[in-house]
Amino acid sequence: xxxxxxxxxxxxxxxxxxxxxxxxxxxxxxxxxxxxxxxxxxxxxxxxxxxxxxxxxxxxxxxxxxxxxxxxxxxxxxxxxxxxxxxxxxxxxxxxxxxx
Length: 100
What we know:
Elements: E1 4-7, H1 9-23, H2 27-46, E2 63-67, E3 70-76, E4 80-88, H3 93-99
Parallel strand pairs: 1-4
Antiparallel strand pairs: 2-3, 3-4
Helix pairs in contact: 1-2
């Protein structure tokens, strides 16, 4: 059975914010970045455990992978790969993850 990709509402907001921020200066670059993240997300359907685990009590089963300069946080299951968050790598990820 093939896995299904699910984008959590928080990740949708993250992607919208990434696009809006980059598009202010360069709409073509914003589109390119989102396509790059999308390719990475679909690649996770083939190899859902390729990213290392992220040990956060509030986020059980969370893993991460990069789509430079962004970090894609996701949770694989038997039926889905859920994209949970997409954050710029320069952000304080430990603080952000602990706060959510």
